[in-house]
């Protein structure tokens, strides 16, 4: 586009990750693979979410959707847990203090209402983890929820996909995160729709292995195509050409 004193050019450059650190190791032991396969027995299903504790991430809405799922599907009680990892963020700002208080309140209410001997519906981990530890969480989960109310690319969605093997888990995305624009084979939810999100999680829990594998293969192609390296190369080459 030309303007009075010059011109400018716009472009779309989807940022990515280096998937290599998240990929399963070729020398992984049979015991480790067996342990990961066992995670999908009905009595051990797990939903995972990893976010900064930020009011844009939709954590209260996600907790309400999980509560609605337990209310509707009594058969899941004692068999399904949500692991919510929340990294502390801007801990002195009033908006973030209120967000933490709301999350703490909802976790307490849900655990108080549904807990049974030997089973806690929500494991709330208010801390940060190293890459290796997060990768292990990614591989143990059956469902991974990336459901912000408004956000950028959400590279954690790509990390999760890169961490999967030939028996992959299901990625569920908010329609309001950037990753949903290119990762179109992931089920998409409106995080404000508590009932709809609960229903999508339930469908994902019962998704056949063949469908899970087909979706993962398509999503993995996106992860391998739009890497951090390809992003920098495309941006810098077009900048040089301009």
Short précis:
The chain has 9 helices and 8 strands.
The biggest beta sheet reads: 6 strands, parallel
Structural class based on helices, strands and sheet pairing: alpha/beta
CATH superfamily: Glycogen Phosphorylase B
The spatial strand order of the largest sheet comes to 5-4-3-6-7-8
* Radius of gyration from the alpha-carbon trace, in angstroms: 19 Å
Helix fraction bin = 40-55%
The CATH architecture comes to 3-Layer(aba) Sandwich
Overall mean confidence score, pLDDT = 90
Annotation, overall tally of beta strands: 8
What are the low-pLDDT stretches, counting only 5+ consecutive residues below 50?
A: none
CATH domain class: Alpha Beta
Order of helices and strands: EEHEHEHEHEHEHEHHH
The first-to-last residue Cα distance is 12 Å
Task: Pick out its properties.
two-stranded antiparallel ribbon; 6-stranded parallel β-sheet; 45% helix; single chain; Rossmann fold; 242 residues; 9 helices; alpha/beta; globular
What does this molecule look like?
- The protein is α/β, with parallel strands linked by helices.
- The chain has one domain (16-22, 36-229): 3-Layer(aba) Sandwich (Rossmann fold), CATH 3.40.50.2000.
- It is built from nine helices and eight strands.
- The chain has helices at residues 30-38, 59-72, 94-114, 131-140, 156-162, 179-182, 194-205, 209-225, 228-241, and strands at 2-3, 6-7, 45-52, 80-87, 122-125, 143-146, 170-174, 188-189.
- The strands form two sheets. Strands 5-4-3-6-7-8 form a six-stranded parallel sheet, with helices on both faces. A two-stranded antiparallel ribbon has the order 1-2.
- Helix 2 crosses helix 7 (194-205).
- The relative contact order is 0.17.
